[in-house]
Amino acid sequence: MSEIVGTVLLVAGLVFNFLGCVGLIRLPDVYNRLQAATKCVTLGTCLLLIGVAVLAGGGAAPVIVKALLCMVFILITSPTAAHALARGAHASGVKLWEQSVADKYLEDREPGVTNEEA
Prior knowledge:
The chain is mostly helical. The chain has one domain. The protein is 75% helix and 0% strand. The chain contains four helices and no strands. It has helices spanning 2-26, 30-56, 61-91, 104-109. α1 runs antiparallel to α2 (30-56) and α2 (30-56) packs antiparallel against α3 (61-91). The termini are far apart.
């Protein structure tokens, strides 16, 4: 039974990672691409690590501990890095996609300014 669950988790992780990679290619601007890379790939990698831990079983405690440590590391660093990249891109003047609805960084920096006025 654990082999089936582990395999399903691995396949789900691969699907999310694939969709994140497609998002990197297909989405229109750096901010949308960062979202795809961060959310899809973080979830996909965590699912892969859970699948590895399940497939390792109860007799492989070092593998399970390493998988959990990697998950914690990825869950902390991936969103933090994406936020830093998005903030740096915005500060250096990288424009949003023309059909973007809101620019929250601009609103925080210059209260009262909306996306239409910028």
